[in-house]
Amino acid sequence: MAEQGAQESAKMTLTAAQKQLLTRRKELDYWQKNARQMRGRNLLTGLTIGAFVLSMFSYTIYSVKQEKIMDEIDDEARIHIMRGPRTGANS
C-alpha cells in the first residue's frame, strides 16, 4: 500500500516541462475550437477598417475637386494683370 501511495504521488507531481506541455495543449485546443469564429471577426474588422479608410479617401478627393479657391485666385490675378500696375496716376 505504501508503494501505491508513492506511485500516485509521483504521478501527481509533474515537472515544469510537463506542466508547460499540458498548458500548450490546452491553448492549442482552445485555438482550434475558436479559430473559425476569430477568423470571421478578424475579416469583419478588416473590412470595416478598409471601408472607413476608402470612404475617407474618397471624401477627401471629392471635397478637393469642389474647391474653387484656386480658380478664384487665378481669376483675380488675371484681372489685375489685365488692368496693369496701380500707380498714383491711374488709381
Automatic annotation (TrEMBL):
Subcellular location: Mitochondrion membrane
A Gene Ontology cellular-component term: mitochondrial inner membrane
InterPro entries: Coa3, Coa3_CC
Transmembrane segments: 43-62
Keywords assigned by UniProt, alphabetized: Membrane, Mitochondrion, Mitochondrion inner membrane, Transmembrane, Transmembrane helix
Location of the Cytochrome c oxidase assembly factor 3 mitochondrial coiled-coil domain: 32-76
Primary location group: mitochondrion
Annotated membrane topology: Single-pass membrane protein
GO biological process terms held by the UniProt record: mitochondrial respiratory chain complex IV assembly
The keyword Phosphoprotein is annotated on this UniProt entry: no
Quaternary structure and partners: Component of 250-400 kDa complexes called cytochrome oxidase assembly intermediates or COA complexes.
Functional description taken from the UniProt entry: Core component of the MITRAC (mitochondrial translation regulation assembly intermediate of cytochrome c oxidase complex) complex, that regulates cytochrome c oxidase assembly. MITRAC complexes regulate both translation of mitochondrial encoded components and assembly of nuclear-encoded components imported in mitochondrion. Required for efficient translation of MT-CO1 and mitochondrial respiratory chain complex IV assembly.
Assigned protein family: Belongs to the COA3 family.
Record PANTHER family: CYTOCHROME C OXIDASE ASSEMBLY FACTOR 3 HOMOLOG, MITOCHONDRIAL, CYTOCHROME C OXIDASE ASSEMBLY FACTOR 3, MITOCHONDRIAL
Protein name: Cytochrome c oxidase assembly factor 3
Origin organism lineage: Eukaryota, Metazoa, Chordata, Craniata, Vertebrata
